[in-house]
Inverse folding.
DNA sequence: CGGAGTATTGAAACCTATCAACAATTGTGG
DNA sequence: CCACAATTGTTGATAGGTTTCAATACTCCG
């Protein structure tokens, strides 16, 4: 289960104009994280919040018998670990070698307390996350394998790539297993559906970690169950 | 698909000691909602936030072809509709005849802006919701039918009932269809699993809307995949 | 009492998981 | 640099759990 790869992603969002952490930026410390190394574990005391500078992070929960659910993937510019309960309720791990900037939660909370605009921003961020989770619950609860994969590709592309033109290449830093655990499928099913999408000329798969989208319309249609899945 | 029942739930949480809305309480207006009537629709402008006084609310999303995912159920004392994006991203409907107290979102935002404690409370609330969603994603993505039903019963009981003793009766205001759409199953599967749990002496089903838990240990075990599901 | 809606139960079909084999890739060390 | 091992991904055959289709029972109300 260990990856020893050293492939690395370039930051898609350099710093972001809407950097909500500007006031605490000087308190941040950059950290380098090797592939598959944890940023924090579920149950850990939540003393820090992190901003992803480069790389990619997966956030997941484990069942006692090892079954895993990846709630979400995070890319450069994203903030994670902002758990207000004092304890992380998910585990965060690097997918590839990543750089994250760590901020003391205490200082963030202070800014939230002193700065109403910041407080509102943080609330907006929290509700954005919740909205994302609600959309993903539809995927997990009501979509078939093809619809799940198509939804994932569209969503992930939307987050990681600005353009959306035919032939657009989308980086998939995560493994098939990560995708499977995100979508409630097995690696075999993920692989089969991707192969079928390639066979149907919807996508190309130049290598394991790249998807070239040939038809966004087809992908959108499949994602929402509009056409033959 | 219409329920015409008039059964009604008594408030389990009368007002709550941790009533976060105390400062805006006077601005609230009570509303009565018939069973199956919407409180708001996905896409509606989010001008109000609501506190459930009595009854039960389901929050859901619909796919174009009618497939439905119920993200969560809410009971007396709960706050809903606190979408900061300005637009509701889910639909909320009464399950049974309910009383909800409506607050202008504007006034809540003002309190959040002026009162740091309130801001922090709202953030905590938002992250509690996110944590709940993350737990439910494990259920949707990685559990089988029996584990899903058991998880739901344990979670719902935890929210609606203080006690947790053998023979404890738990009210299920929602229909089998609501439960199915919450757990990513069909009504038939929900019915079958409940029948099986009754046959296995884990629960009793005196009527459609009541579950008597005979063994919490068994239910907990099944929920986490600990024993034969 | 009757009718509509809801819930239960059964049989068959289907989608995805499981098991298994193989291919491709990556990393290691001679 | 190449051979080898380990990991990851793909593809095939089969099995199994849940859905689908169908029939019946049960409630709630008019």
């Amino acid at each position: 289960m260990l990856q020893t790869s050293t492939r690395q992603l370039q930051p898609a969002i350099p710093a972001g104009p809407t950097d909500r952490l500007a006031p605490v930026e000087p308190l941040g410390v950059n950290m380098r994280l090797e592939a598959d190394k944890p940023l924090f574990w579920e149950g850990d005391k939540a003393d820090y919040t992190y901003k992803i500078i480069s790389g990619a992070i997966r956030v997941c929960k484990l069942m006692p018998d090892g079954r895993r659910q990846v709630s979400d993937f995070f890319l450069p510019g994203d903030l994670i670990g902002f758990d207000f309960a004092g304890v992380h309720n998910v585990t965060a791990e690097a997918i590839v070698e990543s750089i994250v900037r760590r901020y003391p939660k205490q200082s963030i909370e202070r800014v939230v307390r002193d700065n109403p605009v910041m407080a509102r921003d943080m609330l907006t961020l929290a509700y954005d996350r919740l909205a994302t989770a609600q959309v993903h619950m539809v995927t997990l609860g009501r979509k078939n394998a093809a619809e799940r994969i198509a939804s994932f590709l569209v969503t992930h592309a939307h987050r990681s790539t600005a353009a959306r033109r035919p032939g657009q290449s989308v980086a998939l830093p995560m493994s098939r297993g990560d995708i499977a655990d995100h979508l409630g499928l097995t690696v075999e099913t993920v692989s089969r559906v991707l192969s079928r999408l390639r066979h149907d000329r919807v996508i190309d798969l130049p290598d394991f970690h790249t998807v070239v989208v040939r038809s966004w319309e087809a992908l959108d249609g499949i994602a929402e169950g509009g056409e033959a899945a």
